[in-house]
Specification:
Length: 111
């Protein structure tokens, strides 16, 4: 159980850094990052699933979310390339790698 706690904590910490870096990137390109939950929810593409204490279902849900984000980020990279913004493309590519890594780790655990 302690190993799962460490896994979740490592993921949470890395994703919190991604969120902070995303807000900084948004400011760097001249926009304001959203800070209210209501605003986040309007833009959210992930749906909150039913609560479960079953570990395999939790991990499957988490895997599905990471895989959804991988697909969406790839689409955003393609769109961003049209605007000749290599900094944002690079940033999104690094975020993509984070989600690909977590998806891979979860798939390895589930297999």
């Amino acid at each position: 159980m302690i190993e799962l706690h460490k896994f979740y904590e490592a993921q949470y910490t890395e994703l919190a850094d991604v969120i902070d870096d995303t807000a900084e990137r948004i400011r760097k390109v001249g926009h304001f990052a959203m800070g209210r939950m209501e605003d986040y929810l309007k833009l959210a593409s992930l749906l909150e699933g039913e609560s479960t204490s079953e570990r395999v279902q939790q991990w499957t849900n988490l895997l599905n979310d990471h895989e959804t984000l991988v697909r969406e980020i790839k689409q955003k990279i393609s769109t961003t390339e049209q605007y000749n913004d290599p900094g944002t493309v690079d940033f999104l590519t690094n975020v993509l790698k984070v989600h690909e890594k977590w998806a891979w780790m979860i798939r390895a655990y589930l297999s």
